[in-house]
């Protein structure tokens, strides 16, 4: 799982990745090792959970109607322990635990 996380993190930071999420990540968190934890498609936007450092998660909304704007609808910073209480999926919990472990953070 750590290989998958590392590849996803590298792809988000790659200048070749022109997705709205990657553009927001590179602009808002330059040089940071960011791990995508979950992606939730909603009606008009996609909501992404990204581990930013060992104890912070960014929840980023990307509007689908205007992807050319490459602007996040909102970015919410959430403390890791609070974020853990919102995670419903087993797969998301596993991804989060692996990413936190990779960064040497608290379990």
UniProtKB/TrEMBL annotation:
Organism: Ralstonia mojiangensis
Protein name in UniProt: Uncharacterized protein
